Amino acid sequence: MKEQVENLLRNEKERIIASEKQKKEEHLISIGLIDEGTRTRVYQSSWSDSATYDEEKKTYYKESFGAVEVTDEEYAEICKYFPPKLDIFVENSKLGKEYPALSVISIICKVIGALIVLLAVIGLFFGISLATSGYSSETSLGIILIFSSLLCGMVFSLPFFAFSELIKVFIRIEINTRKSQGK
Description:
The chain folds into two domains: 3-84, no CATH class; 94-180. The chain is built from five helices and three strands. It is 69% helix and 13% strand.
């Protein structure tokens, strides 16, 4: 095998092993298996309440405890009783639980946006039926109705969909900020 291919495969294997080790350690810490004798520095890009400045690396860090060392067999047994949770499902479930009013507002905005799109589609089909009726006055009215349905449907529904997603983004930012600060 060529040296480049070997290096690529070796680097990817090392990355996967490091990622799995980090997930394992985060899982053990999340269930309370903390080794207070092991401290690690978690570097961050900005200051926070409990951050300390590292003069050598010119960045902020927080000290955190490491997980208890366990064998692969022990970890497999732990996972039987305490399965690791997927972050995606945890974060999506937190959206509705921690901010129920904002979640309801987000859903309402999506429903309003969908209703506007539905009315625009109905107007579009009505405009098409008028445009193909054969009478000149109805044809021009149908063409106007087609264009106004398309334009108004897009202009008035997009802000509702955007606002709905914006609410979700702000909630996820808050959850991730709290998670990164260890709260």
